[in-house]
Design a protein that fits this description.
By secondary structure, the chain is an alpha+beta fold. Helix content is 44%, strand content 19%. Helix 10 packs across helix 14. It is globular, with a radius of gyration of 22 Å. The model has no long low-confidence stretch (mean pLDDT 86).
Length: 338
Amino acid sequence: MAVWMHRISHCAELSYKLLAQGCLSIGFSELAREKDFVSAMKDAALIGKNQRNFLEEKMFSLWGEKIKQSDVLRRFLLEFQMGDMVVVPLFDKRFTIVKITGQWLTLQQYEKQCHFNFFQNEADIGFLFPVSFLLKGKRDTYGIVSVSREGYADDALCSYMKLAETNADISFMQKNVEEAIAKQNNTHFALPKMQEAWAEAFLKIIQDFLQEKHIENLIKRYLQKQGAGCVKIITKAQQQYTEMVAEFEQLGLILFVNVEQNVSQIDQWALEQIQAYQKQLSHQRDGYIYGVWLISLKSSYSNALKEYAAKQNVQLIEGIAFSKMLLKAGLTALEEMV
């Protein structure tokens, strides 16, 4: 049995829906529509180097060049096996662990089996593996049995979930993965549940009792605790694109921060902020790295927006995550808030 890390942030809205239904997905829909490619990948006579060569040749014929993602698809189609465990990093610093329960199939084949059309938005999903969840408990808002990385995954496993690659062999982390499963399945292991309850209660205090100026001050104190040498709160009269600017001089990093408490169309607000930042940052040529945080205290961002924001190097922070950040920094005393 092998252990894999495989992320599904690509076409997140559909990928998450498929995972909730027990299917681990990957892109490459153009290849999935090539019948000769699908049959060759299933041909036992070509197993090994011949399949790999065929895969790379087919990609080259479709896109006119050898692409880096060929290894990603090769691992998914040729190396993932029934019985393997897969760690799946999710948005909001959560993750799940699944077990592969069958052979891969194309999205079209899966559609025929379940009599449902997923191609309404022509999303780029090509291949799927049937999987079952190894974690127990309630499903999250996306329908996935997932848990927070903090509390269930150790530092080493958390680190490998941050890999930039779509997938990777992490069989050497099998013990770490099994320990995460054991923790989650242990009904007496209460620390993560307590942390979640504390974060929810603290967020409620922030929402109900703190005014806008207090929240700005709270964020300022948090950024200072994280090493910002200078944090500027921009007055309403001066605001153009941002509410707060934090300078981390030693890191050569400048962070723009906007927080929204009550907006109903949170995705639209965030999209407008991202576009404004892109316009502003396009003129920066001063040697600094620029980052963007958008914080929402009451609404949740959609997976589609999270996927878009990640491509634009924008960090979307929802209320509970924001609360956990403050608690971890020790910002719980009244004088720190006001």
